[in-house]
Automatic annotation (TrEMBL):
Coiled coil: none annotated. This is Chemotaxis protein CheW. GO terms for biological process: chemotaxis; signal transduction. Residues 27-174 form the CheW-like domain. It holds the Pfam family CheW. Signal peptide: none annotated. InterPro entries: CheW-like_dom_sf, CheW-lke_dom.
Amino acid sequence: MANKEALRELQSRLAERLQAARTEARTASWLAVEAAGQRFLLPLQEAGEIFPFSSCVSVPHTSPWFLGVANLRGGLHGVVDLGGFLGLKPVNLNTTDSLRDQLRLVALNPSLDINCALLVERLAGLRNRDQLAPADDAAAAEARPDFVGQRLRDPQGRVWQELNLAALARDEAFLRIVG
């Protein structure tokens, strides 16, 4: 029970910080998330509301990474397993309660004109440009989709991959949910 309360407090603090960060003028700021054991940065201007994951209704004949649809504040949203879509390990929805309690849906900003939410395994807070430096590694030279931005390293040496949600919302593979 204490874990759930701590998680709710963390989510409340994150929501407050998200709102404060949106009102501040920063060069770049991101919502940090983890999916399939990887770290990702989602631009705050392109991310929408965050919801706890409870369930969604599956849709037949769709790709395995398209988990179904969920009612989020009265709006029907497609639910995409971020790790599964990126070709990484799909999320395990039959996991322990403590791990399932960390699952979150990050809705895309309504300005992107797509009712979609990304399922991530964990929220990791907010990051801004002065907390990160470019990661100089071989992966930066690889060909990658338009929605994949730069790789950045935090002071602890962890590498984060930036994802451009506006470009993701226009990506043909992302829009093609039929399996």
